[in-house]
Amino acid sequence: MPPERIPVVVIGGGQAGLSVSWYLGAAGIEHLVVESATLVHAWSDKRWNNFTLVTPNWHCRLPGHVYDGPDPDGFMTRDEVVDWLASWLRTFTPPVREHTTVTRLRQLAGDGFELTLSGSDGPRVLHCEQVVVATGGYPLPITPPFAQSLDPAVTQLHSEQYFAPEQLPDGAVLVVGTGQSGTQIAEDLHLAGRTVHLAVGNAPRVARTYRGRDCMTWLSDMGIYDTPAAQYPGGKAAQEKTNHYVTGRDGGRDIDLRRFATEGMHLYGHLIGGKDTRLTFAPTLTASLDAADATYNSICADIDAHITAEGIDAPPPSRYRSVWEPADEPTELDLAEAGITSVIWSIGYRPDYRWIEASAFDGGGRPMQTRGVTQVPGLNFVGLPWMHTWGSGRFLGIDRDARHIAEVIAQSLDPAALDPEALNTEALNTGRRFRLAAGQ
User: Fold this and answer.
1) pLDDT for 276-319, tens place per residue?
2) Coiled-coil ranges per the record (predicted)?
3) CA–CA separation, 178 vs 341, rounded Å?
4) Is residue 287 part of a domain?
5) What's the pLDDT at 438?
6) Residues 207 and 219 in one domain
7) By three-state DSSP, how is residue 47 classified?
8) How far apart are CA 58 and CA 31, in angstroms?
């Protein structure tokens, strides 16, 4: 069959790709969204049952769809997020081809791209002028090489496969990693009465509320989420750090690993190796806890400075003080002796763009882009962490990022067609139909 021709193809039907589709559709630009499963499926398929957002509900902003529920300072549960996204999808009709995977994307010798698709109707080929890759920054879950050397009697899951304590066999659980997922899963198991062992990484933490408001609301007021990546303090090193751990569960609270230790949770440093039932840890626990608390207090100090500079009336400042110190640094653990029957890996994800044949990636396999636009004409990305700001990849920044990509595409397809006056704040806030292209 001859290749199907479509001006723009968006690969990925999550909230980022669909946001670009929303703008392209409003502009009357023909396009297609290709999704390997179903739209926004990751929210129901890859979050545990007691998952909640860690950012306040008022951060939830998508094109034409802003959270307007009764609890803007609260934190939606997984099911509430799924319902909120479903209500957004009822407001427009994106052109979607679901259960279809792009197995190859290559740049054509002239202009444009060729996409090879695999779906229920067999392989197909698409040709397009513009591509938006919205498959997420890090789709492949990481497990360490030695995981396959552990005792096969021990159940192993990645954090995206965990849903509830009941799915695990009886016995203690080892959670590896203390990013947002690892700490919240450890808490979920702890609250369910399971004995939890936790390998602590180098993730920082943040207070849930400070001086009368949510910390993320203070940070938003301070412009932290709007600062372009190139201007962000600390540069690349700051951007590479794991996100701060905190929870929105039960209305939101701090996650204090030291307090968990006083309640019976077993803490260790970095997990560096293992075989059969024996694991080895680096003696990094004290340093990791101290560093996380230092970040916590540093953020509070930054908020103090903002409050003083703006003359804001707020409750008095405070600092976190340790409630527990490790008596020693355990470096070995026998899973069988500790009664550990399950291991949950929560050590992150890695990029996988091997299916894209284009010179748009650095040595680590990450896209080289500026606000989602690469040096390869017509190849764009959306939904990446730090694509433009710290808010990129979050609900708070997706609308702005998607709108920018849609503008770039519209100008590329017809440089004379863009109508800047049509892209006004009122149209974005109300979700009214607007024009990117003149005369439409």
Assistant:
1) 999 999 999 999 999 999 999 999 999 999 999 999 999 999 99
2) none
3) 20
4) yes
5) 27
6) yes
7) coil
8) 30
